[in-house]
Amino acid sequence: MSSENDKDGQPETTESHGDEKPLSKDEAKKFYEEKGIDFSPDAPINPRPVPEFEKSISDKISSKFGPKITVDYVRAHRIRVSTKKEDILSVAQFIRDELGYDHAESVAGVDYPDSKEIEVVYHLGSYTDEKLASQVLALATRVPREEIPNPGKDSSRMTSLREVFYSVEFHERECFEMFGVFFEGHPDNRRLLLPEDWADIPPFRKDFKIKGR
Amino acid sequence: MTTQLPPGISLEKVDDRIMTLNVGPQHPGSGHMRLIIKVDGDYIVSCDPDPGYVHRGEEKMAEYRNYIQNIPHLERPVIHDSSNILYPYCLAVEDLLGIEVPERAKYIRVIAAELNRCIYTLYWLAIYGIFLGHSTMFMWPAGDRELFIDLLEAMSGARVTHAYLVPGGIRNDLPANFEERCLRQVNYFEKRIKEYEAIFYQNPILKSRTEGTGILSRTDAIRLGTTGSVLRASGIDFDIRKKEPYDVYENLDFETVVMKEGDSYARSYVPYLEMFESCRIIRDALSKMPKSGSVRTKLKPNPKGGNEEVFKRVESGRGALGYYIVSNNRPEPYRVKISVGSFRNLICMPYLLKGELLGNMPSVYWSLNYWPVEADR
User: Fold this and answer.
1) Do the Cβ atoms of A194 and B300 come within 8 Å?
2) Fold of the domain built from segment(s) B56-376
3) What is the residue range of A158's domain?
Protein backbone atom coordinates (compact mmCIF):
# COMPACT_ATOMS: atom_id res chain seq x y z
CA MET A 1 0.00 0.00 0.00
CA SER A 2 3.03 2.31 0.31
CA SER A 3 3.03 2.75 -3.45
CA GLU A 4 -0.08 4.90 -3.01
CA ASN A 5 2.12 7.75 -1.74
CA ASP A 6 3.82 8.12 -5.12
CA LYS A 7 0.60 9.30 -6.72
CA ASP A 8 0.36 12.51 -4.65
CA GLY A 9 -3.09 11.69 -3.42
CA GLN A 10 -4.49 11.44 -6.93
CA PRO A 11 -7.50 9.15 -7.03
CA GLU A 12 -6.90 5.90 -8.80
CA THR A 13 -8.13 5.84 -12.36
CA THR A 14 -10.25 2.84 -13.11
CA GLU A 15 -8.04 2.17 -16.12
CA SER A 16 -7.05 -1.25 -14.81
CA HIS A 17 -10.53 -2.00 -13.58
CA GLY A 18 -11.18 -5.68 -13.15
CA ASP A 19 -7.55 -6.78 -13.47
CA GLU A 20 -6.59 -6.39 -9.77
CA LYS A 21 -7.15 -8.94 -7.09
CA PRO A 22 -9.88 -7.74 -4.73
CA LEU A 23 -8.76 -6.74 -1.23
CA SER A 24 -9.84 -8.76 1.75
CA LYS A 25 -12.20 -7.07 4.23
CA ASP A 26 -9.46 -6.16 6.73
CA GLU A 27 -7.12 -4.95 4.01
CA ALA A 28 -9.86 -2.81 2.52
CA LYS A 29 -10.71 -1.30 5.90
CA LYS A 30 -7.05 -0.42 6.53
CA PHE A 31 -6.73 0.96 3.01
CA TYR A 32 -9.68 3.30 3.40
CA GLU A 33 -8.71 4.38 6.93
CA GLU A 34 -5.25 5.41 5.67
CA LYS A 35 -6.90 7.52 2.99
CA GLY A 36 -9.27 9.07 5.54
CA ILE A 37 -12.41 7.77 3.86
CA ASP A 38 -15.48 6.91 5.90
CA PHE A 39 -15.89 3.15 5.84
CA SER A 40 -19.24 2.91 7.61
CA PRO A 41 -22.05 1.38 5.55
CA ASP A 42 -24.34 4.42 5.71
CA ALA A 43 -21.69 6.82 4.43
CA PRO A 44 -22.66 8.45 1.10
CA ILE A 45 -21.14 6.91 -2.01
CA ASN A 46 -19.28 10.05 -3.03
CA PRO A 47 -18.32 11.88 0.16
CA ARG A 48 -18.07 15.57 -0.69
CA PRO A 49 -16.46 18.33 1.33
CA VAL A 50 -18.71 21.14 2.59
CA PRO A 51 -17.43 24.46 1.22
CA GLU A 52 -17.42 27.55 3.44
CA PHE A 53 -19.06 30.13 1.22
CA GLU A 54 -21.97 27.86 0.35
CA LYS A 55 -22.32 26.95 4.03
CA SER A 56 -22.59 30.65 4.95
CA ILE A 57 -25.47 31.08 2.48
CA SER A 58 -27.36 28.06 3.76
CA ASP A 59 -26.75 29.21 7.35
CA LYS A 60 -28.40 32.54 6.54
CA ILE A 61 -31.51 30.74 5.31
CA SER A 62 -31.65 28.35 8.26
CA SER A 63 -31.15 31.10 10.85
CA LYS A 64 -34.01 33.08 9.30
CA PHE A 65 -36.53 30.28 8.89
CA GLY A 66 -35.38 27.68 11.43
CA PRO A 67 -37.50 24.52 11.39
CA LYS A 68 -39.58 25.68 8.41
CA ILE A 69 -36.84 24.65 5.99
CA THR A 70 -34.48 21.71 5.56
CA VAL A 71 -31.05 22.08 4.02
CA ASP A 72 -30.73 18.88 1.98
CA TYR A 73 -27.14 19.31 0.89
CA VAL A 74 -24.39 21.88 0.60
CA ARG A 75 -21.78 21.12 -2.05
CA ALA A 76 -19.40 23.12 -4.18
CA HIS A 77 -21.55 25.69 -6.07
CA ARG A 78 -24.76 23.85 -5.21
CA ILE A 79 -27.19 24.22 -2.31
CA ARG A 80 -30.53 22.53 -1.95
CA VAL A 81 -33.23 23.73 0.42
CA SER A 82 -36.64 22.12 0.91
CA THR A 83 -39.65 23.77 2.42
CA LYS A 84 -43.37 23.22 2.85
CA LYS A 85 -45.51 24.56 0.04
CA GLU A 86 -47.18 27.06 2.41
CA ASP A 87 -43.83 28.72 3.20
CA ILE A 88 -42.29 28.71 -0.26
CA LEU A 89 -43.33 32.26 -1.16
CA SER A 90 -41.70 33.82 1.91
CA VAL A 91 -38.55 31.71 1.50
CA ALA A 92 -38.31 32.70 -2.17
CA GLN A 93 -38.76 36.36 -1.29
CA PHE A 94 -35.96 36.11 1.26
CA ILE A 95 -33.71 34.38 -1.27
CA ARG A 96 -34.32 37.13 -3.81
CA ASP A 97 -34.19 40.18 -1.57
CA GLU A 98 -31.60 39.24 1.03
CA LEU A 99 -29.37 36.74 -0.76
CA GLY A 100 -29.39 38.23 -4.27
CA TYR A 101 -30.58 35.38 -6.47
CA ASP A 102 -32.46 36.97 -9.33
CA HIS A 103 -33.60 34.44 -11.92
CA ALA A 104 -34.71 30.85 -12.34
CA GLU A 105 -32.62 28.41 -14.38
CA SER A 106 -35.26 25.72 -14.49
CA VAL A 107 -38.34 24.43 -12.74
CA ALA A 108 -38.37 20.65 -12.59
CA GLY A 109 -41.12 18.39 -11.40
CA VAL A 110 -40.28 14.98 -9.98
CA ASP A 111 -43.01 12.42 -9.46
CA TYR A 112 -42.91 10.18 -6.37
CA PRO A 113 -45.89 7.79 -6.59
CA ASP A 114 -44.77 5.77 -3.54
CA SER A 115 -45.00 8.68 -1.12
CA LYS A 116 -47.96 10.15 -3.08
CA GLU A 117 -46.16 13.42 -3.68
CA ILE A 118 -44.87 15.48 -6.58
CA GLU A 119 -41.75 17.49 -5.94
CA VAL A 120 -41.23 20.84 -7.64
CA VAL A 121 -37.61 22.03 -7.73
CA TYR A 122 -36.71 25.62 -8.64
CA HIS A 123 -33.07 26.10 -9.65
CA LEU A 124 -32.16 29.70 -8.97
CA GLY A 125 -29.13 31.65 -10.09
CA SER A 126 -27.79 35.18 -9.98
CA TYR A 127 -26.57 37.58 -12.67
CA THR A 128 -26.21 40.67 -10.51
CA ASP A 129 -24.05 39.37 -7.67
CA GLU A 130 -20.55 38.47 -8.83
CA LYS A 131 -19.95 36.14 -5.87
CA LEU A 132 -23.08 34.13 -6.61
CA ALA A 133 -22.38 33.75 -10.34
CA SER A 134 -21.17 30.17 -9.99
CA GLN A 135 -23.89 29.19 -7.53
CA VAL A 136 -27.16 27.41 -8.21
CA LEU A 137 -29.63 27.18 -5.37
CA ALA A 138 -32.31 24.52 -5.58
CA LEU A 139 -35.51 25.38 -3.75
CA ALA A 140 -37.74 22.35 -3.48
CA THR A 141 -41.24 21.76 -2.23
CA ARG A 142 -43.71 18.90 -2.36
CA VAL A 143 -47.35 18.95 -3.32
CA PRO A 144 -49.91 16.14 -2.86
CA ARG A 145 -50.34 13.71 -5.71
CA GLU A 146 -53.74 12.39 -6.72
CA GLU A 147 -54.16 8.81 -7.89
CA ILE A 148 -56.46 9.98 -10.69
CA PRO A 149 -55.21 13.39 -11.76
CA ASN A 150 -57.52 16.21 -12.72
CA PRO A 151 -55.13 19.05 -13.55
CA GLY A 152 -56.21 22.42 -12.24
CA LYS A 153 -59.07 21.05 -10.16
CA ASP A 154 -57.48 18.60 -7.70
CA SER A 155 -55.30 19.10 -4.62
CA SER A 156 -51.98 19.14 -6.56
CA ARG A 157 -51.52 22.87 -6.27
CA MET A 158 -49.09 25.38 -4.86
CA THR A 159 -48.40 29.12 -4.89
CA SER A 160 -46.77 30.38 -8.05
CA LEU A 161 -43.39 32.07 -7.67
CA ARG A 162 -43.96 34.26 -10.69
CA GLU A 163 -44.46 37.32 -8.48
CA VAL A 164 -41.00 36.77 -7.04
CA PHE A 165 -39.07 35.36 -9.98
CA TYR A 166 -40.61 36.62 -13.18
CA SER A 167 -38.61 34.17 -15.27
CA VAL A 168 -40.49 31.09 -14.00
CA GLU A 169 -43.53 31.92 -16.14
CA PHE A 170 -42.99 29.41 -18.95
CA HIS A 171 -41.27 26.87 -16.72
CA GLU A 172 -44.32 26.70 -14.45
CA ARG A 173 -46.59 26.32 -17.44
CA GLU A 174 -44.50 23.36 -18.54
CA CYS A 175 -44.63 21.85 -15.06
CA PHE A 176 -48.41 22.27 -15.00
CA GLU A 177 -49.00 20.36 -18.21
CA MET A 178 -46.39 17.67 -17.61
CA PHE A 179 -47.20 16.90 -13.95
CA GLY A 180 -50.60 18.47 -13.35
CA VAL A 181 -49.35 20.80 -10.62
CA PHE A 182 -51.53 23.90 -10.63
CA PHE A 183 -49.78 27.16 -9.77
CA GLU A 184 -52.09 29.53 -7.91
CA GLY A 185 -51.56 33.15 -8.85
CA HIS A 186 -49.99 32.35 -12.19
CA PRO A 187 -51.65 34.65 -14.73
CA ASP A 188 -51.55 32.27 -17.64
CA ASN A 189 -52.00 28.64 -16.64
CA ARG A 190 -52.36 27.23 -20.12
CA ARG A 191 -50.68 24.35 -21.87
CA LEU A 192 -47.40 25.09 -23.53
CA LEU A 193 -45.78 22.12 -25.26
CA LEU A 194 -48.57 19.55 -25.41
CA PRO A 195 -51.16 19.69 -28.19
CA GLU A 196 -54.51 21.31 -27.44
CA ASP A 197 -56.38 18.02 -27.91
CA TRP A 198 -54.21 16.05 -25.46
CA ALA A 199 -56.71 13.92 -23.54
CA ASP A 200 -54.50 11.72 -21.38
CA ILE A 201 -52.97 12.12 -17.92
CA PRO A 202 -49.98 14.49 -17.55
CA PRO A 203 -47.27 12.58 -19.43
CA PHE A 204 -44.26 12.99 -17.14
CA ARG A 205 -46.00 11.25 -14.26
CA LYS A 206 -44.62 7.80 -13.55
CA ASP A 207 -47.94 6.09 -14.26
CA PHE A 208 -47.85 7.31 -17.86
CA LYS A 209 -46.01 4.54 -19.69
CA ILE A 210 -44.37 4.74 -23.08
CA LYS A 211 -45.82 2.18 -25.44
CA GLY A 212 -43.66 -0.88 -25.93
CA ARG A 213 -41.48 -0.26 -22.88
CA MET B 1 -79.50 32.15 -39.38
CA THR B 2 -77.91 30.06 -36.68
CA THR B 3 -76.07 26.92 -37.57
CA GLN B 4 -75.84 23.99 -35.21
CA LEU B 5 -72.17 23.56 -34.30
CA PRO B 6 -70.70 20.19 -33.41
CA PRO B 7 -69.91 19.83 -29.69
CA GLY B 8 -66.55 21.19 -28.60
CA ILE B 9 -66.37 23.83 -31.31
CA SER B 10 -67.25 27.44 -30.64
CA LEU B 11 -67.06 30.57 -32.72
CA GLU B 12 -65.07 33.58 -31.71
CA LYS B 13 -66.14 37.14 -32.41
CA VAL B 14 -63.62 38.70 -34.73
CA ASP B 15 -62.47 42.25 -34.19
CA ASP B 16 -62.59 44.25 -37.39
CA ARG B 17 -59.39 46.12 -36.57
CA ILE B 18 -57.16 43.53 -34.95
CA MET B 19 -56.16 40.59 -37.08
CA THR B 20 -54.71 37.34 -35.74
CA LEU B 21 -51.90 35.73 -37.69
CA ASN B 22 -50.47 32.29 -37.15
CA VAL B 23 -46.78 32.41 -37.98
CA GLY B 24 -45.86 28.76 -38.16
CA PRO B 25 -45.65 26.03 -37.10
CA GLN B 26 -44.79 24.79 -40.56
CA HIS B 27 -43.63 28.03 -42.10
CA PRO B 28 -39.84 28.04 -42.28
CA GLY B 29 -39.81 31.65 -41.10
CA SER B 30 -40.50 30.61 -37.58
CA GLY B 31 -38.73 27.30 -37.39
CA HIS B 32 -40.95 24.52 -36.14
CA MET B 33 -42.97 26.60 -33.73
CA ARG B 34 -45.96 28.86 -33.89
CA LEU B 35 -46.19 32.51 -33.01
CA ILE B 36 -49.76 33.72 -32.59
CA ILE B 37 -49.44 37.36 -33.54
CA LYS B 38 -52.17 39.98 -33.35
CA VAL B 39 -51.62 42.90 -35.67
CA ASP B 40 -53.15 46.32 -35.94
CA GLY B 41 -52.23 47.41 -39.45
CA ASP B 42 -48.49 46.90 -39.64
CA TYR B 43 -47.86 46.91 -35.89
CA ILE B 44 -47.78 43.88 -33.63
CA VAL B 45 -50.21 44.28 -30.73
CA SER B 46 -49.44 41.04 -28.97
CA CYS B 47 -47.45 37.89 -29.52
CA ASP B 48 -48.10 34.52 -27.94
CA PRO B 49 -45.43 31.93 -28.59
CA ASP B 50 -46.75 28.39 -28.92
CA PRO B 51 -43.86 25.91 -28.89
CA GLY B 52 -44.30 22.15 -28.79
CA TYR B 53 -44.70 21.27 -32.46
CA VAL B 54 -41.58 19.10 -32.29
CA HIS B 55 -41.87 18.01 -28.66
CA ARG B 56 -40.40 14.52 -28.45
CA GLY B 57 -40.31 13.85 -24.74
CA GLU B 58 -36.54 13.41 -24.45
CA GLU B 59 -36.82 13.69 -20.67
CA LYS B 60 -39.36 10.88 -20.51
CA MET B 61 -37.36 8.68 -22.86
CA ALA B 62 -34.28 9.13 -20.67
CA GLU B 63 -36.11 7.50 -17.75
CA TYR B 64 -36.37 4.23 -19.68
CA ARG B 65 -32.74 3.89 -20.79
CA ASN B 66 -29.55 3.46 -18.84
CA TYR B 67 -26.81 6.06 -18.62
CA ILE B 68 -24.98 4.84 -21.72
CA GLN B 69 -28.06 4.20 -23.87
CA ASN B 70 -29.13 7.78 -23.22
CA ILE B 71 -26.14 9.29 -25.05
CA PRO B 72 -27.32 9.14 -28.67
CA HIS B 73 -30.90 10.29 -28.17
CA LEU B 74 -30.10 13.17 -25.84
CA GLU B 75 -28.11 14.92 -28.57
CA ARG B 76 -31.07 14.93 -30.95
CA PRO B 77 -32.59 18.27 -29.85
CA VAL B 78 -29.65 20.20 -31.34
CA ILE B 79 -27.92 17.97 -33.80
CA HIS B 80 -25.51 20.66 -34.99
CA ASP B 81 -24.47 21.49 -31.44
CA SER B 82 -24.40 17.91 -30.28
CA SER B 83 -21.17 18.10 -28.29
CA ASN B 84 -22.47 20.96 -26.20
CA ILE B 85 -25.80 19.34 -25.41
CA LEU B 86 -24.05 16.14 -24.30
CA TYR B 87 -21.43 18.00 -22.30
CA PRO B 88 -23.49 18.70 -19.15
CA TYR B 89 -24.96 15.19 -19.32
CA CYS B 90 -21.46 13.72 -19.24
CA LEU B 91 -20.41 16.04 -16.41
CA ALA B 92 -23.52 15.11 -14.43
CA VAL B 93 -23.14 11.36 -14.92
CA GLU B 94 -19.45 11.55 -14.03
CA ASP B 95 -20.40 13.35 -10.85
CA LEU B 96 -23.06 10.76 -10.03
CA LEU B 97 -20.82 7.76 -10.68
CA GLY B 98 -17.66 9.36 -9.28
CA ILE B 99 -15.58 9.02 -12.46
CA GLU B 100 -12.35 10.94 -13.08
CA VAL B 101 -11.78 12.05 -16.66
CA PRO B 102 -8.25 11.81 -18.14
CA GLU B 103 -6.55 15.16 -18.74
CA ARG B 104 -6.18 14.66 -22.49
CA ALA B 105 -9.88 13.85 -22.85
CA LYS B 106 -10.80 17.12 -21.14
CA TYR B 107 -8.88 19.12 -23.72
CA ILE B 108 -10.31 17.14 -26.63
CA ARG B 109 -13.82 17.68 -25.28
CA VAL B 110 -13.23 21.42 -25.16
CA ILE B 111 -11.98 21.37 -28.75
CA ALA B 112 -15.03 19.37 -29.88
CA ALA B 113 -17.37 21.71 -27.98
CA GLU B 114 -15.83 24.83 -29.50
CA LEU B 115 -15.85 23.38 -33.04
CA ASN B 116 -19.49 22.54 -32.53
CA ARG B 117 -20.27 26.01 -31.21
CA CYS B 118 -18.86 27.47 -34.44
CA ILE B 119 -20.87 25.00 -36.53
CA TYR B 120 -24.04 25.95 -34.70
CA THR B 121 -23.36 29.67 -34.94
CA LEU B 122 -22.75 29.44 -38.68
CA TYR B 123 -25.96 27.50 -39.20
CA TRP B 124 -27.89 30.06 -37.25
CA LEU B 125 -26.15 32.91 -39.08
CA ALA B 126 -27.09 31.36 -42.42
CA ILE B 127 -30.76 31.28 -41.42
CA TYR B 128 -30.56 34.77 -39.98
CA GLY B 129 -29.14 35.97 -43.29
CA ILE B 130 -31.73 34.30 -45.51
CA PHE B 131 -34.67 35.57 -43.47
CA LEU B 132 -33.38 39.10 -43.77
CA GLY B 133 -33.21 38.57 -47.53
CA HIS B 134 -29.42 38.36 -47.68
CA SER B 135 -28.83 35.20 -49.68
CA THR B 136 -25.03 35.52 -49.77
CA MET B 137 -25.09 35.29 -46.00
CA PHE B 138 -26.92 32.01 -46.39
CA MET B 139 -24.42 30.52 -48.83
CA TRP B 140 -21.20 31.57 -47.14
CA PRO B 141 -21.74 30.23 -43.62
CA ALA B 142 -23.44 27.11 -44.98
CA GLY B 143 -20.31 26.42 -46.99
CA ASP B 144 -17.80 27.38 -44.31
CA ARG B 145 -19.52 25.06 -41.85
CA GLU B 146 -18.15 22.15 -43.84
CA LEU B 147 -14.61 22.90 -42.65
CA PHE B 148 -15.42 22.15 -39.06
CA ILE B 149 -17.90 19.42 -39.90
CA ASP B 150 -15.05 17.65 -41.68
CA LEU B 151 -12.85 18.07 -38.61
CA LEU B 152 -15.50 16.60 -36.34
CA GLU B 153 -16.12 13.83 -38.83
CA ALA B 154 -12.43 12.96 -38.63
CA MET B 155 -12.66 12.97 -34.84
CA SER B 156 -15.88 11.05 -34.38
CA GLY B 157 -16.81 9.41 -37.67
CA ALA B 158 -20.17 11.16 -38.05
CA ARG B 159 -21.02 14.41 -39.75
CA VAL B 160 -23.64 15.89 -37.46
CA THR B 161 -24.76 13.57 -34.68
CA HIS B 162 -21.37 12.76 -33.24
CA ALA B 163 -22.16 11.19 -29.84
CA TYR B 164 -18.47 11.89 -29.29
CA LEU B 165 -18.59 12.91 -25.65
CA VAL B 166 -19.33 10.05 -23.30
CA PRO B 167 -19.33 9.81 -19.51
CA GLY B 168 -15.69 9.15 -18.65
CA GLY B 169 -14.10 11.06 -21.52
CA ILE B 170 -14.50 10.78 -25.26
CA ARG B 171 -15.41 7.87 -27.48
CA ASN B 172 -12.10 7.54 -29.35
CA ASP B 173 -8.77 9.28 -29.62
CA LEU B 174 -7.89 11.85 -32.26
CA PRO B 175 -6.81 10.62 -35.70
CA ALA B 176 -3.20 10.94 -36.83
CA ASN B 177 -1.97 14.45 -37.72
CA PHE B 178 -5.17 15.96 -36.34
CA GLU B 179 -3.41 18.82 -34.55
CA GLU B 180 -1.80 20.19 -37.72
CA ARG B 181 -4.98 19.84 -39.74
CA CYS B 182 -7.10 21.47 -37.05
CA LEU B 183 -4.68 24.37 -36.65
CA ARG B 184 -4.54 24.96 -40.39
CA GLN B 185 -8.32 24.96 -40.74
CA VAL B 186 -8.89 27.15 -37.69
CA ASN B 187 -6.42 29.71 -39.06
CA TYR B 188 -8.15 29.69 -42.43
CA PHE B 189 -11.58 29.85 -40.79
CA GLU B 190 -10.64 32.89 -38.76
CA LYS B 191 -9.39 34.70 -41.84
CA ARG B 192 -12.52 33.70 -43.73
CA ILE B 193 -15.13 34.82 -41.22
CA LYS B 194 -13.50 38.25 -41.06
CA GLU B 195 -15.03 38.79 -44.50
CA TYR B 196 -18.53 38.50 -43.01
CA GLU B 197 -17.96 41.80 -41.28
CA ALA B 198 -17.86 43.79 -44.53
CA ILE B 199 -20.57 41.94 -46.43
CA PHE B 200 -23.07 41.49 -43.61
CA TYR B 201 -22.46 43.37 -40.41
CA GLN B 202 -21.48 46.66 -42.06
CA ASN B 203 -24.26 46.36 -44.62
CA PRO B 204 -26.44 49.51 -44.35
CA ILE B 205 -29.64 47.61 -45.14
CA LEU B 206 -29.01 45.09 -42.38
CA LYS B 207 -28.15 47.88 -39.98
CA SER B 208 -31.32 49.79 -40.78
CA ARG B 209 -33.41 46.68 -40.14
CA THR B 210 -31.75 45.57 -36.92
CA GLU B 211 -30.32 48.59 -35.14
CA GLY B 212 -32.74 49.89 -32.55
CA THR B 213 -35.31 47.11 -33.05
CA GLY B 214 -36.34 44.80 -30.26
CA ILE B 215 -34.37 46.49 -27.50
CA LEU B 216 -34.01 44.40 -24.35
CA SER B 217 -32.81 46.47 -21.43
CA ARG B 218 -30.32 45.23 -18.89
CA THR B 219 -32.92 45.06 -16.12
CA ASP B 220 -35.38 43.16 -18.28
CA ALA B 221 -32.69 40.73 -19.39
CA ILE B 222 -32.05 39.86 -15.73
CA ARG B 223 -35.71 39.84 -14.73
CA LEU B 224 -36.74 37.57 -17.59
CA GLY B 225 -33.85 35.22 -16.84
CA THR B 226 -32.48 35.28 -20.38
CA THR B 227 -29.23 33.55 -21.15
CA GLY B 228 -26.42 33.26 -23.65
CA SER B 229 -25.86 35.84 -26.37
CA VAL B 230 -29.16 37.57 -25.57
CA LEU B 231 -27.93 38.26 -22.07
CA ARG B 232 -24.46 39.34 -23.14
CA ALA B 233 -25.85 41.65 -25.83
CA SER B 234 -27.75 43.48 -23.06
CA GLY B 235 -24.57 44.32 -21.20
CA ILE B 236 -24.30 41.53 -18.65
CA ASP B 237 -20.94 39.84 -18.44
CA PHE B 238 -22.03 36.28 -17.80
CA ASP B 239 -20.54 33.23 -19.42
CA ILE B 240 -20.51 29.91 -17.60
CA ARG B 241 -17.16 29.08 -19.16
CA LYS B 242 -15.77 31.98 -17.12
CA LYS B 243 -18.06 32.07 -14.10
CA GLU B 244 -18.20 28.37 -13.31
CA PRO B 245 -15.42 26.83 -15.43
CA TYR B 246 -15.85 23.16 -16.22
CA ASP B 247 -13.14 20.76 -17.40
CA VAL B 248 -10.15 22.85 -18.49
CA TYR B 249 -11.73 26.19 -19.43
CA GLU B 250 -10.02 27.92 -16.51
CA ASN B 251 -6.58 27.16 -18.03
CA LEU B 252 -7.49 28.55 -21.42
CA ASP B 253 -7.09 32.07 -22.67
CA PHE B 254 -10.27 33.75 -23.95
CA GLU B 255 -12.58 36.64 -23.21
CA THR B 256 -16.31 37.10 -22.86
CA VAL B 257 -17.94 39.18 -25.58
CA VAL B 258 -20.30 41.77 -24.10
CA MET B 259 -22.24 44.52 -25.87
CA LYS B 260 -24.41 47.18 -24.29
CA GLU B 261 -26.99 48.01 -26.95
CA GLY B 262 -29.41 45.12 -26.42
CA ASP B 263 -30.96 45.45 -29.88
CA SER B 264 -31.22 42.87 -32.66
CA TYR B 265 -27.93 44.01 -34.14
CA ALA B 266 -26.02 43.44 -30.91
CA ARG B 267 -27.70 40.08 -30.39
CA SER B 268 -26.61 38.95 -33.83
CA TYR B 269 -23.11 40.42 -33.49
CA VAL B 270 -22.21 38.75 -30.16
CA PRO B 271 -22.28 35.12 -31.47
CA TYR B 272 -20.21 36.23 -34.47
CA LEU B 273 -17.52 37.74 -32.25
CA GLU B 274 -17.62 34.66 -30.05
CA MET B 275 -16.49 32.54 -32.99
CA PHE B 276 -13.15 34.37 -32.86
CA GLU B 277 -12.90 33.53 -29.16
CA SER B 278 -13.70 29.90 -30.00
CA CYS B 279 -10.78 29.89 -32.44
CA ARG B 280 -8.55 31.27 -29.69
CA ILE B 281 -9.71 28.54 -27.32
CA ILE B 282 -9.10 25.78 -29.88
CA ARG B 283 -5.57 27.04 -30.63
CA ASP B 284 -4.78 27.36 -26.94
CA ALA B 285 -6.20 23.93 -26.15
CA LEU B 286 -4.20 22.34 -28.98
CA SER B 287 -0.96 23.79 -27.60
CA LYS B 288 -1.67 22.92 -23.95
CA MET B 289 -3.11 19.45 -24.58
CA PRO B 290 -1.09 16.44 -23.38
CA LYS B 291 0.24 14.80 -26.52
CA SER B 292 -0.54 11.27 -25.46
CA GLY B 293 -2.37 9.37 -22.80
CA SER B 294 -5.69 7.76 -22.06
CA VAL B 295 -8.85 9.46 -23.36
CA ARG B 296 -11.55 7.41 -21.70
CA THR B 297 -12.04 6.06 -18.22
CA LYS B 298 -13.65 2.67 -18.34
CA LEU B 299 -17.01 2.43 -16.67
CA LYS B 300 -18.40 -0.59 -14.93
CA PRO B 301 -20.92 -2.36 -17.15
CA ASN B 302 -24.39 -0.89 -16.66
CA PRO B 303 -23.34 1.53 -13.90
CA LYS B 304 -25.78 2.56 -11.17
CA GLY B 305 -26.04 6.07 -9.80
CA GLY B 306 -26.32 6.51 -6.07
CA ASN B 307 -29.37 7.78 -4.25
CA GLU B 308 -28.71 11.43 -5.03
CA GLU B 309 -29.17 14.22 -7.52
CA VAL B 310 -26.94 16.52 -9.50
CA PHE B 311 -27.29 19.74 -11.52
CA LYS B 312 -24.57 20.56 -14.04
CA ARG B 313 -24.52 23.32 -16.61
CA VAL B 314 -22.36 24.47 -19.48
CA GLU B 315 -22.39 27.34 -21.94
CA SER B 316 -23.79 26.15 -25.26
CA GLY B 317 -24.25 28.06 -28.49
CA ARG B 318 -27.62 29.29 -27.23
CA GLY B 319 -26.75 29.97 -23.61
CA ALA B 320 -26.73 28.00 -20.41
CA LEU B 321 -27.57 24.34 -20.82
CA GLY B 322 -28.21 22.44 -17.61
CA TYR B 323 -29.00 18.86 -16.73
CA TYR B 324 -30.78 18.02 -13.51
CA ILE B 325 -30.51 14.27 -12.93
CA VAL B 326 -32.19 12.47 -10.03
CA SER B 327 -30.91 8.97 -9.45
CA ASN B 328 -32.31 6.25 -7.23
CA ASN B 329 -29.80 3.37 -7.16
CA ARG B 330 -30.92 2.14 -10.55
CA PRO B 331 -29.08 1.86 -13.88
CA GLU B 332 -31.65 4.26 -15.34
CA PRO B 333 -31.99 7.84 -14.13
CA TYR B 334 -35.15 8.49 -12.12
CA ARG B 335 -35.72 11.89 -13.66
CA VAL B 336 -33.80 13.95 -16.19
CA LYS B 337 -34.63 17.61 -16.64
CA ILE B 338 -32.90 19.46 -19.45
CA SER B 339 -32.85 23.20 -18.91
CA VAL B 340 -32.09 24.73 -22.29
CA GLY B 341 -31.18 28.23 -23.37
CA SER B 342 -33.80 28.40 -26.12
CA PHE B 343 -36.64 27.65 -23.73
CA ARG B 344 -35.41 30.28 -21.32
CA ASN B 345 -35.16 32.91 -24.05
CA LEU B 346 -38.67 32.15 -25.31
CA ILE B 347 -40.16 34.47 -22.70
CA CYS B 348 -38.52 37.46 -24.45
CA MET B 349 -40.65 37.13 -27.56
CA PRO B 350 -43.90 38.67 -26.25
CA TYR B 351 -41.87 41.56 -24.81
CA LEU B 352 -39.68 42.31 -27.78
CA LEU B 353 -42.31 41.92 -30.48
CA LYS B 354 -45.00 44.03 -28.82
CA GLY B 355 -45.29 47.33 -30.67
CA GLU B 356 -42.79 46.25 -33.29
CA LEU B 357 -43.41 46.43 -37.03
CA LEU B 358 -44.49 43.11 -38.50
CA GLY B 359 -41.65 43.38 -41.00
CA ASN B 360 -39.15 43.40 -38.13
CA MET B 361 -40.48 40.12 -36.79
CA PRO B 362 -37.87 37.89 -38.53
CA SER B 363 -34.94 40.04 -37.47
CA VAL B 364 -36.04 40.11 -33.84
CA TYR B 365 -37.11 36.47 -33.75
CA TRP B 366 -33.91 35.04 -35.21
CA SER B 367 -31.66 37.39 -33.26
CA LEU B 368 -32.82 35.59 -30.11
CA ASN B 369 -30.69 32.62 -31.16
CA TYR B 370 -33.74 30.47 -30.68
CA TRP B 371 -33.75 26.86 -31.75
CA PRO B 372 -37.32 25.45 -31.61
CA VAL B 373 -36.32 21.79 -31.52
CA GLU B 374 -34.15 22.38 -28.49
CA ALA B 375 -36.80 24.41 -26.70
CA ASP B 376 -39.35 21.62 -27.18
CA ARG B 377 -36.96 18.81 -26.28
Assistant:
1) no
2) Cytochrome-c3 Hydrogenase; chain B (1.10.645)
3) 52-184
Rounded-to-10 torsion of CA A169, A175, A180, A183: -30
Q: Break chain B into its structural domains and give their ranges.
A: 56-376
Residue A120: the pLDDT is: 92
Please give the Cα distance from A193 to A191 (Å, whole number).
6
Pairwise CB contact (< 8 Å): A210 & B61: yes
* Domain contains A103: yes
pLDDT in tens, B103-153: 999 999 999 999 999 999 999 999 888 888 888 888 999 898 898 899 989
Structural domain total, chain A? 1
Nearest to B223 among A13, A105, A166 (CB): A166
What pTM was estimated for this model as a whole?
0.84
Torsion over CA of B144, B147, B153 and B158, rounded to 10 degrees?
10
Do the domain assignments include residue A142?
Answer: yes
**Which residues, in sequence order, are bridge partners of residue B75?**
none
Nearest to A46 among B98, B309, B337 (CB): B98
Is residue A144 in some structural domain?
yes
The nearest CA of chain B is from the CA of A11 a distance in Å of 8
- Site from B22, B32, B222, B368 to mutate, A interface, most A CB atoms within 10 angstroms: B222
> Is residue B338 within 8 Å of B323, Cβ to Cβ?
yes
The CATH number that applies at residue A68 is 3.30.460.80
> A25, A28, A110: which is closest to B63 by C-alpha?
A110
ipTM for the whole complex: 0.85
* B321-356 pLDDT per residue, tens: 999 999 888 888 999 999 998 898 888 888 888 888
CA distance B80 to B28: 18
A207 in contact with B at a CB cutoff of 8 Å? no
Provide the CB-side half-sphere exposure for A82 (13 A, CA): 9
Report the distance separating Cα A191 and Cα B52, nearest Å.
10
End-to-end CA distance of chain A, in Å? Answer: 47
State yes or no: pLDDT of B22 exceeds 60.
Answer: yes
Interface probe, candidates B63, B335, B347, chain A, greatest A C-beta count within 10 A: B335
What does the DSSP 8-state code read for residue B318? T
Residue A207 lies in a domain: no
Q: What b/e sequence results for B333-369 when a residue is b if at least 16 CB atoms lie within 10 Å of its CB, and e otherwise?
A: bbbbbbbbbbbbbbbbbbebbeebbbebbbbbbbbbb
Mean pLDDT in each 10-residue stretch from start to end of chain A (213 residues)?
A: 45 50 76 69 62 84 85 85 88 88 90 90 89 88 86 85 88 89 86 83 86 72
